[in-house]
Specification:
Chain lengths: ~325, ~325
């Protein structure tokens, strides 16, 4: 069976070259002052489809044998994985079916449809999304692309780690905490595997919403912990119930202690990204930046690296961040 | 006397390497659909200090002999040039004095002070800013760095053209209009000179606010025309009275016809940059994007290139763009 490792990540990087964007590493002297150390932000909101998920989607779709890929793919997603898979499928010229929660941001649902996908909505509180996805896969002969517990998806997200290793070497940074927004752990584990191979002085730190800190608690207890609830945070993109069965062993081995921030802190991170970096972040995409800026004592070192993972936010939520927290 | 030409731009690029950011070229299938052609956006809002002006500031400060530079610099600016020069001076360890209009966005004034500059405010309607700058230069032995009519400033902005030539070659685009927000013409003439040398199939098109279209009218009449008023647009960064005496002859030789958009169109451009590109633009920084998307019949070719020149916008103006024009 395919295993998520550095060879798989490097193979994914070859397939992504010229298709995924190499995203910039941004900074501001104003943010450095707030954090009391250098803050370097990997702006993955500038990736195609507005989040890092395009990397995993492209990696998984491009890894399929041509005749399997031609039958189409199905994905189950709160929105960003949906768009990433839909656009990757569209660019490969193959059909996609996306199962999304009915309460996902309107912009994400519309964008997914506009990227050529057939969208099927479900109720996050009462229906089991994984069962819906498995049934569609079986009945319509579509390849199911899981959002994080898939080695090729993890490999795609890991290409961010390869870019970071190069970009941080250019900045002469060999030792730092790397703060990463974390749902099921695909992004964190992919980046962690890449850094383990190419920049072992960099330590990954998953960051979650305060009431959905299953990965933080799982890392502390050494076994998979679950969140008591499924909804109730603005950080919709990372409200997964527990770390994945593939991602958790990787994170257990290489991640530092988990971190968490409140929704209000995520909104404050969005406002600071607006005024100081000129990028648009969604709440889930801002949790790592919020931790770096608002809980600097929880990170270590002379510099902190932040992954700003996505920017697919509806205007009313962005306005709330500006109204309450912009200078 | 130093002349703005391709050799000066390439020398500036050498001095800027490792100091200015190579900004990404962004795109979205949704914007392509609106414009009816490929739209590629050079996101210069992601430059240090939030606008392209850091390039010109760094170019001019770094070109000074060390003993001249050590005495300090003075600049007169609506805000973005102010921050660019102030930060370039701070990074060189030399003092800066910045003359700014009292009605410039609060964020720009505060940022300029925080970047180590001494800020002197003036009244845009009643005082002559150039006289204030010249007097300070004389009395305090500071080198005056003009916002656009300075060969080294033009050379710094021209480094964007060198990056564009490379990035567009990677995209297999050899022929297109390049739409550029235009005040005094430093950005347009610098980019134009670089493209003339390295990508002659690309034609620059200056874009201005509708009631401040002095460059458009000057290009049409063949002589320097002035704007009847000095204030009255949200596009504060590009409300210059007329094209410069250095920039106008360059633009006359190499620019295509000028373009213009209303303030409402600039706000709509900002909303589309928010939802589709995940970048923050100020009104002046969005005029070229607005022209490409909302007046596609005024550009030519299979693709249109847009310079998104800056993102230094106060939250209330950004909120207005979202309230009125976000989906």
């Amino acid at each position: 069976m395919t295993e998520a490792n550095i060879a798989l990540i490097e193979a994914a990087a070859d397939r992504l070259r010229g298709h995924a964007r190499v995203t910039p590493l941004l900074s501001s002297p104003f943010l450095d002052e707030i954090a009391g150390r250098r803050v370097l932000v990997k702006a993955e909101c500038l990736q195609h489809t507005g989040s890092f998920k395009f990397r995993g989607g492209w990696s998984a779709v491009s890894a399929l044998p041509e005749e399997v890929r031609g039958k189409g793919v199905v994905a189950v997603s709160t929105g960003n994985h949906a768009q990433g898979v839909a656009y990757a499928a569209q660019l490969h010229g193959v059909p996609s079916v996306i199962v999304m929660p009915a309460d996902a941001p309107k912009l994400k649902i519309e964008n997914t449809r506009a990227l050529g996908a057939e969208v099927i909505l479900y109720d996050r509180e009462t229906e089991n999304r994984d069962e819906i996805g498995a049934k569609l896969s079986r009945e319509r002969d579509l390849t199911l692309i899981k959002p994080y517990d898939d080695p090729q998806v993890i490999a795609g997200q890991g290409t961010i780690g390869l870019e970071l290793a190069q970009q941080l070497a250019d900045e002469d940074i060999a030792k730092a905490d790397v703060l990463i927004p974390c749902g099921g752990g695909g992004l964190s584990s992919g980046i962690g595997l890449a850094l383990e191979a190419w920049a072992p002085g960099l330590r990954i730190r998953p960051v979650e919403p305060a009431d959905f800190d299953d990965v933080k608690r799982s890392l502390a207890s050494g076994r998979i912990e679950k969140n008591p609830k499924a909804t109730g945070s603005l950080c919709d993109a990372i409200l997964t119930p527990s770390p994945g069965s593939i991602t958790f062993p990787i994170l257990s081995r290489i991640a530092g202690p988990g971190l968490s921030v409140t929704d209000d802190e995520a909104l404050r991170g969005m406002a600071l990204a607006f005024s100081r970096l000129k990028i648009v972040l969604e709440p889930a995409g801002a949790v790592a930046l919020a931790s770096a800026l608002l809980h600097p004592n929880e990170s270590e070192g002379d510099a902190v690296i932040v992954v700003a993972s996505g920017g697919n936010v509806d205007a009313p939520v962005f306005r709330e961040a500006l109204d309450r927290f912009a200078d």
